[in-house]
Amino acid sequence: MSRDLAQRLFHELEQLVLIDPHSHINPHAAASRTLADILGYHYYTELAHSAGLPKDRIEEPGISPKEKVGRLIEKLTEIDNTVQLSWFLDLAKSFFGFEHDELTLQNWERLYDGAEKKMAQPDWEDQVLKISKLEAVFLTNDFDDPLTGFDTKRYIPCLRTDDLVFHFDKAPTRERFAKATGVTPTNAASIRNGIGKLFTHFQSKGVRACAISLPPDFSPAPVPAGPALDAALAKVLGGQDCADSRRLVSQFVFWTLAEFCVEFKLPFDLMIGVNRKVYPSGVHQGQDLFDKRVSLIQYKDLFNAFPTVKFPISVLGQTSNQELVSYAWIFPNVITHGSWWYSNIPSYIELDTKSRLEAVPRTKQIGYYSDMYKLEFGLPKFRMYRRILAKVLAEDFVIGRGWLETRALELGKTVLRGNVEQIFGV
What we know:
The chain has 18 helices and eleven strands. By secondary structure, it is of the alpha/beta class. Strands 4-5-6-9-10-11 form a six-stranded parallel sheet. A three-stranded parallel sheet has the order 1-2-3. A two-stranded antiparallel ribbon has the order 7-8. β10 (about 335), α16 (about 345-360) and β11 (about 365) form a beta-alpha-beta unit. The radius of gyration is 22 Å and the shape is globular.
């Protein structure tokens, strides 16, 4: 009974057209051109590397797309147990008519050639969005992105602010800032002025969120105008290497961003807990890990200071989910947001989904986002989540609480689509 019920709910959830609230899509080249674009996704390169494929064979300069895929296949046959390979098989069947349950040394070339022909079709991007049932996709835009040359209703701008907060001590960042804003950063007032111009530019292009990924040791705090901030800015803008000054400037820029989120009525997406370059010998994007020593208590001043700003929060480690659930339980402006990176594993997602649905108001949960770099991944990733959500709704709500199927389905639609519209105003 439970399995049939979950399958019915899954079928209904599969019909829902979605808005993806977080991705890394390049709107100028959203869909893939070859399987190398797909299997070049960091999940596959890092797993192949972990399984023994040398980094220089994966990232050799000048290697052709087909040769790269052929090399990856050598090790991808060893990761057929992973959910990541199941994503690939799902999209290969859905988009390219792949008829096998395994990717092997014998069948990959036929798949590669057939997929390349399919992806060469001029309307391939539209096909992918339609088959995936995706209406719109949020982007991750650098602060100096001109936001031109694409449909901002389909690809929704999001102001990504990592460089502003953590790399303002670097001359290239300040040069980009000056070029994008027309403001040379010389003091706190000029930086604030420039940030305001960035928000104005993004608002004119339909921005729906500000976002940042944060290291475990960062603690937001207000930095009042005065000698301490002036001295820190003088050192940072002057190129001096001073950790305390960099920290103070990071806090000042971050707090200023939050203040502009109030003014421009934008949610501020926080992705908390990433440690960069833990494994410097890893493949591209396969070097960062999470640190469970991070705590949301570091953000209490922020949540209290900005009650009108919505903070959709992602935690990198599944071990942080209980704390996130508790904060969303108590703080009206804290929202649970998807399953980020290392938490994007079915066993973790199911546990997180159960706890969030049991403890957090239904209107304060964004069930899932793809985090994808190419459009083809929206289908298998959201399908994975829909299947898990259907199982939880069936077992915990229809069977466990005696809800009608229609009521459980409405809850599923709320966390999948309704809350994205309500929280981000799309």
